[in-house]
Amino acid sequence: MGTGSREENASKEIEISTWPDDDVILYDGVCIFCSRWVRFVIARDTARRFRFTPIQSGYGTRLAKSFGIDPDDPDTNAVVHGGVAYMKSDAALTVLSHLPGWGWTRTLFAVPKPLRDAVYSLIARNRYRIFGKYETCFVPDADMRARVLE
Length: 150
Hints:
This protein has 6 helices and 5 strands, in the order αββαβαββααα. The chain is globular and about 35 Å long. It is of the alpha+beta class. The protein has a 5-stranded mixed sheet with strand order 1-5-4-2-3, with helices on both faces. 28% of the residues are buried. It comes from Bradyrhizobium elkanii.
């Protein structure tokens, strides 16, 4: 049984040809782990390709709903890249593989998606218990704020 190519996996994701923005990362703004993920990406995204939106913002809520993500109980982050919405492990690997020095992460797409997503979901389900939760949405500094869509 094959694992499917990256292109085959992408075709199973949500086509969003009408969404006006590309390279947008949707994240849980009260999740400490998720906010650290955003900081990790910003620190390495020297081309400033990616922009960010917390699911708690108006823009983020609309984006989440268009992907079928419950904004009140998100179980995944997402990234819009090339007109396709990637979620769970596909989202994380898509972002990582476009950061300088992280292209090697493309090889992780060879790991079967059900296995990758099982690990992702385990962390996502326990993220508040393991990493904690902000009382209010994470507020980025001025440089980060320029890349946040609300």
